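Quick look at the format.
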Amino acid sequence: MIPQPSVAHRGGRGPTLTDGTVVVANEAAQGVAALLAAELRAATGWRVACIGIDEPALGGAARLRLLADLPGGPSTASAADAGATGTAFRRAFPSPVEEGYRLRVSAEGVDIEAPSAAGAFYGTRSLLQLLPPDFLRSAPSRRWDRVELDGISIEDAPRFGWRGMALDVSRHFFPKDFLLKLLDLASFHKLNVLHLHLTDDQGWRVQVDRYPKLTEIGAWRRESPAGHESDGRKDGTPHGGFYTKADLAEIVAHAARRFVTVVPEIDMPGHMQAAIAAYPELGNTAQHLEVYTNWGISEHVLNMNDGTVRFCREVLEEVMDLFPGPFVHIGGDECPTTEWEASADARRRADELGLAGPRQLQGWFTAQVAETVTAAGKSLIGWEEVLGAGAPPGAVIAVWRAEHALGAAVEAAETSHRVIMAPEPWTYFDWAYADDPREPLAIRPAISTDKAYSFEPVPEGLRQDLEGSILGAQCQLWTEYVSTPQHAEYMYFPRACALAEVTWSGRRRDWPDFERRLRDHTARLGALGVNYRPLEGPTPGQARTWLSTSAAPPVTVPRQAAGQDLH
């Protein structure tokens, strides 16, 4: 199983599932039961009823019993085995949930018990991994008469509360249907956060009624770099798109049914050229800009005028209305100060505020937007640069820079900030898997699956009493060089499987054991229609460069991956 459960004991016979299987659930687990029943019906063609705990079922029908919202939960021993930070999420979040579960498969049937609907849901994800991989398909692949399960007892709980995937939809826009699929894949691996990087210099992707030009102008760029940025070529092809409020409501509802929190990121005050192209008065010069057609960082940043601060507040208010979760991400990374230092208005503003100079304006700006976030009852997240700029109290710090991340995590925790671990060398899945010409074009090499699996979210040197400040970890997929859903799936999987185990399971790492389980798990990824990268390397249809067998190691092409192509 992936991720590996805290405690599992095999033994005895399980039930035989057939047409007429019944999913029984109490009121708190009804939504989870309905989802499981729908999945089983789709994969098998069976009649699978979903009934209440006191309703009579047909005699002889196999029973899958889900009970949620029960007192207790996984035992103290299991929680301790899951890691010292297992309760950090519950202490830190405004609306905590217990995500542990007990799963027992015996001759009498399948029993899942949990202290919350989320825990019951994760129990069903484990149950699906005990079934044949074809039970994950959206329609029957063969005639299923019966499936016999082996007996097993599982007691499980996550190590960390924050188990996330981040997707940059600004550099390249990804259709709504892909986000829905990504939510299914994330939750199947017991990941519970989807962080959407919705805005950047290269595109604005969220509808804001008060500022319609953000999508009329800011959602579209004239062209993009062709090949690597350093090649200096452009493709001459317009690119863009955005999510309507109805799209985002659908995405959020789909996520909620799978116990995933969608976290929006509106990057500010840097990475804002798309917004400035739409509303030039937000900039520091009179220059009329277009949406950025290069990768990298634009030096055009927001001015610090009252009107611009009001714009940011109003944008955040609309965005927060769309995303009911407890967090909003304001970016805050990589903000050049060149324009502020050259601007008489910025220097005057710094003087009025009693700041040492324009470089200190970012800290002041962050405090202004933090007031809006706090007033909405939410927590602000910022990349680690906001720490140096003066992070407001209560801000969550996402650490990422290779040379600073571990030190920044310790500094943030020691100054009473909660921390999300997202350091480049382990979690930046826009990096290639290997320094190999067959790999698709990427920003840099290389994070292999075993490198991702080796990541330890609790930084070395952090005092034990501060370990609860580490909420968890997430992987990042920046998309300068990732333009299609198929390519995105390749870059995420199987590395996201490794991250799932790092964040759910305990501290112990056993790569040979994980690799063995992962090889079996790829059959599940294939059934789910994932364009995953085989462990041996890309398939011929995934490879960027064709190499003869004498120039490259042999690649075993899994049956389910044959014919899948990134382009």
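Next, a different chain entirely:
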Amino acid sequence: MSAYGKELMTRRGFLRYVALGAGATLFAACKPEVIERVVKETVEVEKIVKETVEVEGAVEVVEKVVTATPAPIKTKLIVNAYTPSEWTERSAEHPTVTNAPRILAENYKDVEPNLEVEWLRFVAPEGGSGDTYYSAWLDALVASGTAPDVVNPMHWVPIQKGYCLPIEEFLQQPSQFASQYSTWQDSFYPSVMKAARYADGHTYTAQVSDKIAGFEIGMMCNMDWFDTIGMDPPKTWTEQLAVGEALKEAGSSWIPWPNEAKEGCIWSLGLQLLPSIFQTHCPDMDTDGDMFVGAEECLPAFRAGTVGPLTPTMQAGWRQQKAVVDHWPDGWTSADLEVMWRQGQIGMRQTGGWEVTAQYSDPEIKFERILVPPPPVTSADIPEGNDPQSWTPGDGTLWDGALTLINGPDTAVMKITEERNTVLDAIHWLQWITEPENCAFLVNENEALVPAVKDAAIGPLWGELLRYQMPLYNYTIAYWGECLYFDATHYNEIRKLFVSWATGQMDDDTFFRRQHEETAAGADRYEESLA
């Protein structure tokens, strides 16, 4: 057992103390409050001190045993994952409020009274997406020695960069807050933790929440416009394109997620088209047989020319992604799509679970709106599409294999905790927020995602959305397994190329060649990260 393992078993309930120098002596000349302060700061339970006293008119020096009161050290844990909002009340300016982390941190003081959680938020520039700015933000913190102890490792970024500690040793021990499980790992959905294993064989995350496979994104529909065009929200890819065409003809449009529009939103490609198109490649790519294709399995497939921007199947997906741009508003690279949506000019938008609460509770949005799953792509939609083997039950419950860490890990412990001696503090905090009731409380406050802890209840919004039937393919695959995300630089560069191509600044041959070059460079960097 490592030193961490032993300390996990012996340090609970003990406080840390400040030591007083061994030669310190208290004299009667000191003021009482000074003596009291010095005594309270000693580490020793008892201390013999010399003190002058008056006995029958004579002044004598006597030795006296003083019982000391230990003073605990306050430990600071800097947390970047699941941070509360700076505001505590909902308003028109801030329709989404996140108070659960703040409440859990306060309740945690009953367990660890000398631990203070300090929140460190990552906020992308207004109108920008985290994918574009997160990596540089974290690099700067690491370089300056001010990185968080616990981090949200967006899309594996800090893990790829070697900033994080493996935690499988702790996962194989019981959680001090969930004794009903033999090990901490047993409290999570097995499919989640199986997918959490990084390509180097280590596990870096204790997953708090996850997206549902096939429902990473959704379509928020402005029902006023659907009444205008006389159509229902789309249920297939063909219907999605037909709705887009009808909206454009009626003077409206549908939009990508506004935060990524200017940078290149390729959600349709990565989360609707390629998961279907790549099913024919997945049996060869899935080398470990877990039915989940990640970057480590995409790498050899790309090297072998099985997948990649120069293959006909992937090019078919890119061409479909480009086709949806015809349904976006004119000038979408410069227009304020968020304002257009809130003012009711837009008929449909791609959205993610993280903003659903804001969308439903925004008092400035007056039109009726509903959220539907992303329409699947099958052989009836495009020749390269594949039909699902089955469909979800549609009964409001999660199904076996629904969660597979499709968007990557959401917590990790940074290596800087070894220097700060806060490794165990970070582990205990993660155990606290992944206790089933705490996890449900944290995740369901805004229902951006669903809990990754198997006995944590899902929220009512997801219970309703899960009444839609979704396609179940044999293999789960997203950006990492699709040659779209070997690292953050790769992802950002190919999206820029997409904007140039979609706006007519680049021809097809140049686009696919440049895509291949950027993908090859990203694959090289990813392979180096595994060394």
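Residues 9-45 have pLDDT under 50 and may be disordered.

See the schema section for token definitions.
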